[in-house]
Amino acid sequence: MEIAAATEGSAPVAKTGALIVGAGPTGLTLACELARRGAPFRIVAAAGGPSTTAKAGQLHSRTLEVLEDMGALEGAEELGVRVYGMTVYAEGRRVLHSGHDDLDAPYPYELACGQDRIERLLLDLLSRLGSRVEWHSRLETIAPDGGGALATLAGAHGASRRIRARWVIGCDGARSTVRELTGGRLERAACPEEWLVGEVRLDWQQPPDEQYAFLSEEGGFAALTCQPLPQERWRLTASLPPAHRTPGHREPDPSLAGLRELFERTGATAGRLSDLSGVTIHRVARRTVERRVAGPLILAGDAAHLTSPLGGVGMNNGIQDAHNLGWKLALALEGVAGPELIDSYAAERQAIVRRPLSTSNRSHVLRSLRRPLAGELRGRLPGFLAHFDHITDRSYRDQAQISSGYRDSPIVGEEAGAPLPRAGPSDHGSQLAAWTSFARGPRAGDRAPDSPEIREGDGGPRRLFEVLAGSEHALLMFLGCEQPHAQTLATATAIARRVGDGYGSRVTAHLVVPAGRPVAGYDWPGPVILDPTEALHNRYGARGECLVLIRPDGYIGFRAQPPSFQALSRHLSGIFAPMAIVSS
């Protein structure tokens, strides 16, 4: 991306750390992440207010975890409908069903709700954090300016103002002004697709806790999905066959009658459609920008990647873009970020949005659908199913984004020593078991697993995500057994104290004890997590003493067995700028 040189003007220049352009779910999430960390920013939008139409479809399981961490999930359940699975019909016959039953997550479902409702949640949170959106603010120019960028904005009545920011973050959607003004290029599109989307009242016998897909070859390939919404409404999304774009072919009918015709043609079960609203035709192709970060310019959400309207994939990716970027940008604005931290946002998130439906999953689906599908319909299925990665059990985890991670990130790492005996030959078997368990545990870059029924101090049962919600880096010091060696306790304490002295509240060390009570006669300098069922130890492969560092966005940044401050310090030197950390 390139930006033109700055020019002098008469409008006064305001200063801020980050200028967020766009106040959809991506921009609002980023604003909330910066606001709760006290980072300087402003958020502007050309619109006069938040969305009034539903637009994107559902919140995936991982996004619900993100909203919980932010403190924005309260009240969300009342705004949507829980969706526990999907059923696929072909030529009128049910051919496949899968669901979230085995999803190892605190939210084993999707929450179907409109973008307008999600924006209201985030706007309420932003207000509680003491910030607001500057509406009626249209971006007109961006120019480089002394290590940052100078943006010119036009107000509702034509008056312009200028803002100088260290970073400008384009969260302004598929037709991003930031991307266009700075010459950001989308990769060449392959196989553009068209979708007819509308909301209706649908009276039928299908339960409203699943979504449904209907496939047919009649009159050309047709695919229709029906997704439940609040207040007994449904969102219908129909794929439009390539034939309708040929010369002389009539445009699809974006009316209630047109949707009824598609509904009947795909062999959908008996139902009555009425009260159509919000019908649109989406012409999109899966595309990403070549660069997300270029100097002071950053792109996120639909400004950085375009997807189909199915399943709210773009909105979920955008929220998670912002959650990944937020803590990194806050550290950079504070002047304590390591040199690779902002660039790691691009490396991590670009890898996620580029990942297609795997060949193995596609083959599994097609083997499942041998009949009654004919060859033509079968041949078109991969493109359609690519938007429903959750059709198979393994890829349902992908759609929920529980299995997405950053193992190849430049800012994650791990170290594991050899399984050598500590106190003598009798310990060798237990050390080997601990080493094997650690090797099989979640890796650096993986989403940190949640765990129920842990306790913090004398409190009642809680989940790990509840304990860590809203925190910065969390260092879990696992003891591995109820009666640890004295040296194990001494090492854990020394690491915790050195972390506290060097990083203050930015890294909090938690002692994790596989028992229902703290270690007797032992003074730990921080919070203690009790794990009486050892579920937390098991989920992290912690059968022996080890440490796991969980990032602010809920992914494992580093882990080591045995615990080593030197190894941890080497990792943290890539997150925080040398000599920039001061205890707080």
Q: What does this entry look like structurally?
A:
The protein is 28% helix and 26% strand. The strands form 5 sheets. Strands 1, 2, 8, 9, 10, 11, 18 and 19 form an 8-stranded mixed sheet that branches. It has 3 domains: 13-76 and 114-188 and 288-354, FAD/NAD(P)-binding domain; 80-112 and 192-284 and 359-403, 2-Layer Sandwich (D-Amino Acid Oxidase, Chain A, domain 2); 413-572, Glutaredoxin. It has 15 helices and 27 strands. By secondary structure, it is α/β, with parallel strands linked by helices.
Write the layout of secondary structure elements.
Layout lengths: L12 E9 L3 H11 L5 E4 L13 E2 L1 H10 L10 E3 L1 E6 L2 E7 L10 E3 L2 H14 L4 E2 L3 E8 L2 E7 L5 E11 L6 H5 L11 E12 L6 E6 L5 E8 L3 E7 L16 H10 L5 E14 L2 E2 L4 E2 L2 E3 L5 E2 L6 H22 L6 H14 L4 H10 L6 H11 L7 H8 L12 E4 L11 H13 L14 E2 L7 H5 L4 E6 L7 H18 L3 E7 L14 E3 L4 H5 L6 E5 L5 E6 L3 H8 L12
Parallel strand pairs: 1-2, 1-11, 2-8, 5-13, 11-19, 21-27, 23-24, 24-25
Antiparallel strand pairs: 3-7, 4-7, 5-6, 9-10, 10-11, 12-15, 12-16, 13-14, 14-15, 17-20, 18-19, 22-25, 23-26, 26-27
